[in-house]
Design goal:
Strand content of chain A: over 45%
Oligomer: homodimer
Shape of chain A: globular
Order of helices and strands of chain A: EEEEEEEEE
Distance between the termini of chain A: 30 Å
Number of strands of chain A: 9
Mean pLDDT of chain A: 93
Largest interface: A-B, 35 and 35 residues
Number of helices of chain A: 0
Strand order of the largest sheet of chain A: 2-3-9-4-7
């Protein structure tokens, strides 16, 4: 059986951030997120009812938390646990090539639709 | 806040496979597994009551399934879902440097101890 590769089909540029569900099981969703320079809208903060563990696989990004003035600049191999209801945003992603994230949503309600 | 890096502290060689829990929540465990040439014992098959999603981050490995004669040779970025009770083993990992895996155990009973 040939495995799939997380970097296959990753476009160098895209108008929007691309989110692909790699696995969805009760309480867990594993996503591949490809950013090509996108950031969260100005003033927007994610506020999720569940925890999210993110691992940056390629590129770079700046993750901000509402309760922390310090930028969390992420490079390949860096990972962070975003606790439930910890408000966060993506300040920037690298404009020079695709930033590929692995996001693991933990304890997500099954009724939730596909949101980061 | 400085993120942690999954490749930090990875030894080039080790006597045994090293498993580190990066996150443990009800029903989910995320592990970093570092192999430096280790394989499953001859004739041994893992048979888990829960699903495991694995992503190879560096190195290379050959994952075998009892129901599939074809080797599943994995290179960086390759991922596979191992269904619950699908018997599998690691036939070999690269002898040339560390093979780093991310393993996400899904639906794992909370009473289980730390096993791949």
């Amino acid at each position: 059986m040939a495995p799939e590769n997380i970097f296959s089909g990753v476009a160098a540029q895209s108008e929007t951030e691309l989110v692909t569900a790699l696995l969805a099981m009760p309480g867990i969703r594993i996503e591949k997120i490809v950013s090509t320079g996108q950031a969260s809208p100005p003033g927007f903060w994610y506020d999720q009812a569940w925890a999210e563990w993110v691992l940056l696989l390629s590129g770079s990004a700046d993750l901000r938390f509402a309760d922390d003035q310090t930028p969390t600049v992420m490079k390949p191999g860096d990972y962070v646990l975003i606790a439930a209801h910890r408000r966060h945003r993506v300040e920037w992603t690298s404009p020079d090539g695709p930033t590929v994230w692995l996001a693991i949503h933990c304890g997500i309600p099954q009724t939730e639709t596909n949101q980061m």
